[in-house]
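Section 4.2 – Deliverable D4.2 (structural model, holo form)

The reporting period included a commitment to supply a predicted holo structure for the target in complex with pyridoxal-5'-phosphate. Inputs used:
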Amino acid sequence: MQEIAEKYQVKQETLLDFSANINPLGMPSSLQQKLVTSIQKLAHYPDIRYRKLKEAIAKFHQLPQQDIYLGNGAAEVIFNLAQVLKLSQLLLLAPTFMEYEGAFRNYDTVFSYYLLAPHNFQVDVADLIAYAKKEKVTGICLCNPNNPTGQVIAKKDLLILLDFCRQKKISLIIDEAFIDFTPLEENSMISELANYQELFIIRSLTKMFAIPGLRLGYLLTSNQNILKQMEMITVPWHINTFAEIAGREVLKNPDFIKETQNYVKEEREFLVENLQKFKPILKVFPSEVNYLFLAYQGVTCLQERLLEKGVLVRKCDSFRGLSAGFYRIAVRSRVENMALLQALEEVLCEE
Ligand SMILES: Cc1ncc(COP(=O)(O)O)c(C=O)c1O
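Output (structure tokens):
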């Protein structure tokens, strides 16, 4: 956001930011209070082994504490995992969260499995497996839900993929950074961790609990060998005291996640319904998360046009596999969503 504000010389504070996929309810108020009252704790080092935080995560997921590796955001997990795994031949979706390519390209040859607009950017698992066989990959990495498309791969398909990976001894990395915006139990692969040591699940707390500036994520795997190697390359005290407090606090409150899911579903449906009136120049793809993926057929840059109205959306042409004309918008509050629709109306009328 800062970069765009600087580029177009607009004041950041005046922009309505639909470019970041953060919980529209913001940070839980209990967390805000906890952080304010914990300020004195910054005068001490955090526990170097983060036992209480790991205990909270283990309890939340009903997993052994030893299966958890903490990260300064999921981003740190991704880069450290890439460094340790050294997969040599890795299959990535395209488009997907771009940091994967950045992290793994240093160690591996990256193969892109291109998702297609006519298929709503959905993953066809049988086709993906055929591609993985053809390229003889040693690792597959998927974001579920995917970013920027908002698509979810059904658990039954992931189980087929997991079976294939197990037979071929392929490492499977699943990024579930946005999975808690969808009904959790249905889609998460956490239940399979004990069954396959080469399964790596990445989670983030920065989106659901609106703490991207605080940074906290983690890796879940039963592969103790990889976890040990990751600990060896990790800088001591990489999780700051506030992030440690935040993790322990937010995981106590699953009701906040449920409340968010309901809120996001309602607002997403409101946006989808109202965006239909801009068809065919603007197409909205199906999504199950807190953001929507759009294809715009106009000749101008929708991001620039909306900026003139004080609204910032994410232009997606920098994602591998996407050309100009694709945009991502966050699901926000009703008032903000209405402001976005109004801005779109004005911009598209002028087209
Ligand atoms: C799919 C996905 N995974 C991971 C991340 C990084 O999350 P964190 O803020 O925890 O580093 C992002 C950030 O946008 C993301 O989209």
